[in-house]
Amino acid sequence: MKKKTKVIILTILTILVLCSFYLHYENTKLQVSKYNIKNSKIPSDFNNYKIVQVSDFHNTKSKTLTNDLIKEIKEQNPNIIVLTGDLIDANKTDIDIAINFIKEINDISSIYFISGNHEESTSAYSTLKEQLEENNVIILDNKAVILKEAESEMNLIGISDPQIINDSFFSDSEKIKLELENVAYDKSKYSILLSHRPETFDTYVESELDLVLTGHAHGGQIRIPFIGGVVAPNQGLFPKYTSGKFHNKNTTMIVSRGIGNSILPFRINNRPELVVITLNNE
Predict the structure, then answer these.
(1) What are the tens digits of pLDDT across the range 46-101?
(2) What is the pLDDT of residues 12-30, one digit of tens each?
(3) SS in 3 state form for the chain?
(4) 3-280 — its CATH code?
(5) Which of 11, 75, 196, 247 has its CA 20 to 30 A from that of 171?
(6) Quick one: pLDDT at residue 25?
């Protein structure tokens, strides 16, 4: 074999190995994103109240990623943990993986869960709900609870993924609006909504919610510097809502890039994300 050919082969192999290491890093190295939310409606008793958000776990099989996620949640020591949908994956459902993760974190603080499109599209969801409740997870599909600190209160609201309403005559925004209208809560209090879908931001703004925590977009799967995500479900190419904080009128929305993968088995420039939110009264 000629020397030039050997150099070419070696170069190609080196590139392949480096690409392999890069993809492994991008898909298993957890990133922690911290947000400080200030609002005069937040009671002073809730100053420094910490919320940890896990979205789109998709029963990931990466032990490295899961162990790092559990460790980081414990280190954050949040007041509450919220799971904003797609804990399991309809295409590779493994409830045991999801529940084992829950068992590792359910003694840290209260856990609140809402469904994503993957839960709503599989018959296994009923089994998952039973096991979540057995492990003290509070399911907030179309429900609201009161969070209390000292003498102060805030609303924590959850809605199920709009896929549960199997009616093609209504858009997802219309379905979510209907779900919100059917949940009773005191709108004078600071209100946090757990919803899987970020693409219906305008509906959340119209409903005058204060803080909305979402996922679903997987960060756009592949992120291009200065441009953002390439593709997201229900948003298509170059979607608007894939990661970070968005604000309109009195509503702030945080979009988690999520933990696991689903249809596409890899991420690029888009590491798995744990979201940590700290509340403060202005």
Answers:
(1) 999 999 999 999 999 999 999 999 999 999 999 999 999 999 998 889 999 999 99
(2) 777 777 777 778 888 899 9
(3) CCHHHHHHHHHHHHHHHHHHHHHHHHHHCCEEEEEEEECCCCCHHHCCEEEEEECCCCCCCCHHHHHHHHHHHHHHCCCEEEEECCCCCCCCCCHHHHHHHHHHHCCCCEEEEECCHHHHCCCCHHHHHHHHHHCCEEECCCEEEEEEECCEEEEEEECCCHHHCCCCCCCHHHHHHHHHHCCCCCCCCCEEEECCCCCCHHHHHHCCCCEEEECCCHHHCEEECCCEECEECCCEECCCCCCEEEEECCEEEEECCCCCCCCCCCCECCCCEEEEEEEECC
(4) 3.60.21.10
(5) 247
(6) 82
The amino acid present at 30, given as its one-letter code, is: L
User: In this model, does residue 6 exceed pLDDT 80?
Assistant: no
Tokens of residue 106, six digits:
């359910």
